[in-house]
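Input structure tokens:
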């Protein structure tokens, strides 16, 4: 039974994801060494998170993804309840009330909200055939997204809020929407950003944007992280300095080296070759997503996989962009590589959803023909 089940999985996708997780563990292990000693706690935790995430991935793969349609209402209510609760019961970490403290580790609900929003939007957009090229599709789907996004902004966690907005915009426009609506949303986004600057953004968030526009304005303050990251990326050259020998990471010049700026560690210690190898693995993941979408017979399954793909694309682009100074620092992790239980587990659940679609990509057509 187990062997039969494994044969139905997309083995290539599974293998590449396992290699990415292993690469992340290697880099986190490397960052455990520094000038003040060694601390393997993050590495040990990430190993545990990896096991939990892989078990959940297999569990989700086992179930028919179409059953998720029946749970969207409950999912949505649960998401809103948890996001409201965290504003009162959450733990303040780095200026954001985004985590529940469970003792051994912290849980960040916004990482799992991304999964729920993909499911909700996939269901609505797959059933909204009459709304093609219609502004109502944008309005109704936007209403679903609005409340969770606002609650996440109140934490404040603008990185996760941006991911959810990107998922929404990408999924809406992949299903067909007129260009004038795209322009309207863009203008609305600019207005919202301007309003946020004056009424919502904290001082440290404004500093991040200011530093992004002018990186040299405060090299020892708000621009320090990005400046050290750029130095680390550039110093790796072709082959890198070797695992455990990165001067920026091992001498603690590079802050958040195991989370936000882990790509800089990859580039410094493994060089251009290592970074290119990692990007090549991500490219294979997206190729497998593309194949699954092409072979899947129902729109709900297609949109689920596309939603997962858009989420990973946004995370990878923003994280690497902020490591090389072309994107503002937003705290968005690098999928499967950055340390963090909530993000790793949520990404593996997304892979589980994609695997569930892959395993049943042709069954929908057979059942429909029999009807």
């Amino acid at each position: 039974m187990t062997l039969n089940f494994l044969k139905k999985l997309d083995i290539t996708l599974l293998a590449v994801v396992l290699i990415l997780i292993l690469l992340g563990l290697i880099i986190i292990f490397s960052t455990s060494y520094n000038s003040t000693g060694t601390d393997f706690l993050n590495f040990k935790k990430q190993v545990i998170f990896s096991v939990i995430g892989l078990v959940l991935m297999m569990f989700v793969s086992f179930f028919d993804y179409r059953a998720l349609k029946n749970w969207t209402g409950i999912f949505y209510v649960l998401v809103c309840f948890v996001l409201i609760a965290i504003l009162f019961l959450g733990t303040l970490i780095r200026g954001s009330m985004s985590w529940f403290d469970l003792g051994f580790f912290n849980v960040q609900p916004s990482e799992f909200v991304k999964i729920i929003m993909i499911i909700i939007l996939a269901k609505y957009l797959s059933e909204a055939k009459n709304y093609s090229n219609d502004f109502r599709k944008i309005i109704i789907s936007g209403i679903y997204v609005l409340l969770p996004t606002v609650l996440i902004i109140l934490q404040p966690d603008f990185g996760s809020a941006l991911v959810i907005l990107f998922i929404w915009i990408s999924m809406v426009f992949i299903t067909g929407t007129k260009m004038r609506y795209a322009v309207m949303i863009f203008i609305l986004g600019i207005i919202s950003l301007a309003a946020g600057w004056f009424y919502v953004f904290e001082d440290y968030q404004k500093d991040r944007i200011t530093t992004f526009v002018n990186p040299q304005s405060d090299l020892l303050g708000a621009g320090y992280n990005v400046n050290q990251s750029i130095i680390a990326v550039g110093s790796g050259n072709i082959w890198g300095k070797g695992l455990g020998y990165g001067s920026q990471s091992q001498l603690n010049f590079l802050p958040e080296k195991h989370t936000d700026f882990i790509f800089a560690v990859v580039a410094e210690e493994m060089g251009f070759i290592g970074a290119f190898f990692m990007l090549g693995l991500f490219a294979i993941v997206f190729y497998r997503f593309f194949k699954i979408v092409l072979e899947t017979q129902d729109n709900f399954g297609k949109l689920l996989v596309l939603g997962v793909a858009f989420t990973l694309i946004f995370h990878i682009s923003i994280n690497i962009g902020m490591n090389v100074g072309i994107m503002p620092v937003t705290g968005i992790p690098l999928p499967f590589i950055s340390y963090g239980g909530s993000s790793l587990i949520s990404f593996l659940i997304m892979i589980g959803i994609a695997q569930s679609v892959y395993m049943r990509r042709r069954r929908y057509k057979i059942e429909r023909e029999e009807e």
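Residues 138 and 172 are 7 Å apart (CA to CA). Confidence is low (pLDDT under 50) at residues 366-371.
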